[in-house]
Design goal:
By secondary structure, the protein is an alpha+beta fold. It is built from 14 helices and twelve strands. Helix 2 links the parallel strand 3 and strand 4. The termini are close together. The model has no long low-confidence stretch (mean pLDDT about 95).
Length: about 400
């Protein structure tokens, strides 16, 4: 492997941790304290002294700065601190890749990747606030009343559904699968609050084709994981979970403004998925379980198709509740509840759930879990994804 330009099998996750998850604005702790709690929980899971950390990685301009975290944790030195470019949850997988790259190239020995949110402290993520000027993409959208993420992404999804004959039932199945898995997960915000077809169908429209339950939650909390070199991974108490591959980026002119992408009805994984499979040396048939970022269910439809699980015109047949739920489903999806029903920790809770699946400790365990895919936020640029695997697939 030393002569190859790859992360495959070179870095492993040895610890994961998170805070309790709260509805937006209800966390009793400040955002920085939430980050510290999640990091300490991940270190405890790994049996690691936090002072062995020498790097941090995050995304979407996380406000818990690496140097401040290092001081609070008493680190002897900080060797690397990376922040993935791009808004939204498109960078949730790339942040892990950046931390892994630092380890693989000798820039750090132990990197914590994390995300922290306290919307009661800093304002709601999905709420449009007053602005004096609008620039970039917003300058072309806000004068026409396109103010919020559901409105912007609904247009891409509506186009995709029209072009490929995707029915509302496919989106509904994704929402129902997430809520189904959340009922087995005591960490989930929607634990004890099941969703059925009638409740989904009767829920109000947000921006067609999105019903209320097609849209992610807004939450407070933090989540973190610990990365080390693969050669050290067996020294820790948990089963190592190896990084098989990682990719990020965008297709041709995907971020062109205003809504002028050459591939408008796309989740932006056309090139990124190919890069991931090439590095991981697996195919879609090898993947036993998927955690796919649901800012909105329609993005999941596109992302799964672009990762090769079905052709777009096959979406209605593939995306059923029976196919998407563990343990008997063809492709168990978002087995902790995901952004829709576990927590909107900006997609990072999906990364932790993929680690649990490979470990075999999920509350909704997939029978085939040696290879787990994580798909970051769709319909943004740059997008990113990850493939995790057990030692058996190296």
């Amino acid at each position: 492997m030393s002569g190859e330009r790859t992360l495959r099998g070179r870095v492993a996750v040895v610890g994961i941790g998170e805070t309790p998850y709260y509805k937006h604005g209800q966390s009793p702790d400040a955002e920085f304290k939430l980050a510290l709690k999640a990091i300490l929980a991940a270190c405890a899971d790994a049996g690691l002294d936090p002072r062995q950390i020498d790097g941090f990685a995050s995304y979407s301009d996380d406000r818990s700065e690496a140097t401040r975290l290092a001081a609070a944790l008493g680190l002897p030195r900080l060797r690397t601190a990376t922040m993935q470019w791009g808004g939204g949850g498109g960078g949730c997988c790339a942040a892990v890749a950046n931390g892994a790259a630092a380890i693989a190239t000798g820039q750090a020995d132990c990197v914590v990747v994390f995300r922290s949110l306290a919307q009661g402290q800093y304002g709601r993520f999905g709420q449009t606030t007053g602005v004096n000027t609008a620039s970039g993409e917003k300058a072309y959208l806000m004068p026409y009343g396109v103010l919020s993420p559901p409105q912007r992404f609904a247009m891409r999804v509506q186009r995709y559904m029209h072009e490929h004959g995707v029915r509302q039932e496919a989106l509904r199945a994704i929402a129902l699968a997430s809520y189904h898995h959340a009922q087995a997960n005591p960490r989930a915000v929607m634990h004890g609050r099941p969703l059925d077809e009638a409740r989904y169908d009767e829920s109000r429209w947000i921006a067609e084709p999105f019903h209320l339950f097609d849209c992610c939650m807004e939450n407070d909390g933090a989540a973190a994981l610990v990365l080390v070199d693969a050669e050290r991974a067996r020294d820790f108490p948990n089963k190592p979970v190896y990084l098989l591959g990682a990719a990020s980026g965008a297709g041709y002119r995907f971020a062109a403004h205003p809504h002028n992408s050459a591939e408008y009805a796309s989740a932006n994984f056309g090139t990124v998925a190919r890069d991931l499979y090439d590095m991981a040396r697996v195919t879609p048939a090898d993947v036993g379980v998927v955690q796919s970022y649901e800012n909105f269910t329609g993005g999941v439809v596109m992302a799964l198709a672009e990762h090769g699980f079905f052709k777009p015109e096959e979406a209605n047949d593939f995306l059923t509740l029976e196919n998407l739920t563990a343990p008997k489903g063809r492709l168990p999806l978002n087995t902790s509840g995901g952004n829709l029903a576990e927590c909107y920790m900006h997609g990072f809770e999906l990364v932790l759930e993929a680690v649990r699946q490979v470990r075999g400790t999920s509350t909704s365990q997939a029978p085939r879990h040696d290879v787990a895919l994580v798909v970051g936020g769709p319909m943004v640029a740059p997008a990113s994804n990850l493939m995790f695997g057990s030692e058996a697939v190296l």
